[in-house]
Amino acid sequence: xxxxxxxxxxxxxxxxxxxxxxxxxxxxxxxxxxxxxxxxxxxxxxxxxxxxxxxxxxxxxxxxxxxxxxxxxxxxxxxxxxxxxxxxxxxxxxxxxxxxxxxxxxxxxxxxxxxxxxxxxxxxxxxxxxxxxxxxxxxxxxxxxxxxxxxxxxxxxxxxxxxxxxxxxxxxxxxxxxxxxxxxxxxxxxxxxxxxxxxxxxxxxxxxxx
Length: 210
Known about the structure:
With 210 residues, the chain is an alpha+beta fold. The chain is 41% helix and 23% strand. The chain contains eight helices and eight strands, in the order αββββαβααββαααβα. The strands form two sheets. The protein has a five-stranded antiparallel sheet. β2 and β3 (37-41) form a beta hairpin.
């Protein structure tokens, strides 16, 4: 997960880091707490950043960017699984749309399919789950909502690929994450959960009766 996240966060390029790794566009890094939150000092006070939600947002923005074109990863043996009748009907109706989302597949007999290639942002262990989720979304939204389906897929892939709670991060990893996050900054993750909690210095001083 971390390796994938770093590749996406870098956008495939090696960017020069500031000499002071603690200084970032979002503030000065104080450190990581409970392997889950990054504490940053700002001009107004401090911010507590949810590392998973922040990394999720960065990856999602990269995937959703019009400049991003995923690579196709061929699966050496293919991944096969069974579909229900309704799932199979949805797949047969929208097979061309799956091709436009960079999935290569074959429909076999008795409701079985085999996935032969997927876009590179889909992790192999999540293929069946992601594929069936796409089928469900399409059946619920219909052909007019395929762009919405794509964004749901990107949000799901970003969530599964981002650094997690309890992942210890080095100062290099925190610095990279915050610098990349500043390019596509949002106060929520793709699912709408908050990324940051602000503590104003004035409020903090009042808390200590200053």
